Amino acid sequence: xxxxxxxxxxxxxxxxxxxxxxxxxxxACLPPVETRTRLLVLRHVSxxxxxxxxxxxxxxxxxxxxxxxxxxxxxxxxxxPLAEPGTCVLxxxxxPLAEPxxxxxxxxxxxxxxxxMLQRIPALQSLPRLSxxxxxxxxxxxxxxxxxxGMSTIEAIARALDxxxxxxxxxxxxxxxxxxxxxxxxLRMGPDYARLARAG
Length: 200
Fold this sequence. Notes:
Layout: H1 26-29, E1 38-44, H2 55-61, E2 66-70, E3 87-90, E4 103-108, H3 111-120, H4 122-125, E5 129-130, H5 153-163, H6 167-189, H7 191-199
Parallel strand pairs: 1-2, 1-4, 3-4, 3-5
Helix pairs in contact: 5-6, 6-7
């Protein structure tokens, strides 16, 4: 019998960033940053209500970024946005691109879900791939990556933008990620966080 996903109580959270009002990330995300590269985040539906979903914050912070949910029951994915000229997918193992992409598709899911999405969405399989160097050493995260060198979605988008020559947008996302980790740990650990911060 499949395990049910626990839906968190979000009634006392900001409806945009899912943090408590006193820890709201929206001031750090707004106004959105303009980028040459368009971002299309293809998010597995199981991530939609996770308070730690970082794609939500990236979409708030980047002007023109689109967020599409995949995997909802009886909901078909519109693959037309994936076929736009100059589109690539952010995925390991890609060859160097001949020219900078106009649009980068980012798969937002667990690694096992992301692999299945790549297998089940024909439009993704045909896209050229943009690969990234590893994450900065010692980065704190709200969720531990299941693979060596893994990154959260917002970190991966920041590294992609930096690689494509948009360091200001990358720096904004890095700042939002750092704030989210700090505030998320404080929310999760309660009084223990203050003691840990003093010890550090």
